[in-house]
Amino acid sequence: MFNDIGPLEILALVVLAVIVFGPEKLPKVIQDTARFIRKVREFSDNAKQDIRNELGPEFKDFDFEDLNPKTFVRKQLLENDDFKEIRGSLDLRKEIADVADLKKDFGEVTDLKKEMAEVADSVHGRDTAAAAPLASANGSGAASTTPDLLKKRPDTKGDDHPPFDADAT
Fold first, then answer.
1. In terms of C-beta density within 10 A (0-12 exposed, 13-18 middle, 19 or more buried), how is residue 27 classed?
2. What is the pLDDT of residues 20-60, one digit of tens each?
3. What CA–CA distance (Å, rounded) separates 141 from 107?
4. Which of these, 73, 69, 66, lies nearest to 48 by C-alpha position?
5. Residue whose C-alpha is closest to residue 117's, from 146, 145, 136, 147
6. Whether the model pTM is above 0.70
7. Helix, strand, coil proportions of the chain in percent (round to 5)?
8. Dihedral of the CA atoms 32, 33, 36, 40 (nearest 10)?
9. Closest listed residue to residue 115, CA positions, set 101, 104, 105, 128
10. Do the beta carbons of residue 52 and residue 59 sit within 8 Å?
11. Is 118 exposed, middle or buried (0-12, 13-18, 19+ CB in 10 A)?
């Protein structure tokens, strides 16, 4: 209940209580508050006992904590036999091993992709030997297959402009 109140906040409440009630009335206020809390707890326990008596003997071990939805779901998932099979099939170690295998397979696919790019370069007459030192200097092997976006492309047709539509402006 008071797990989220820090020591400085409690100290501030004590100082505020001394200021509001004064040192003479503070012990009486504390006693009255403690008596009120005891009565509320006693009333709550009596109400729970009455509910258990009214429900009958089959609900003798009924716990009111089970009415909390989170507790109910957790209890159903842990104790229900239908869900044990599902939990058994969710083996994290197996899933992690599968992901590691996929990662290894992805590395093989990447290597195959590089080889295919080299073959395509040789078919199209591109010089892969000149691009290889550039790729190794950049530290990436894929630089030979991807265009350098920082370099300006050579203008093959200087006279071609996109069509101009006067009605579009």
1. exposed
2. 999 899 999 999 999 999 999 999 999 988 888 888 887 77
3. 13
4. 66
5. 145
6. no
7. 75, 0, 25
8. -170
9. 128
10. yes
11. middle
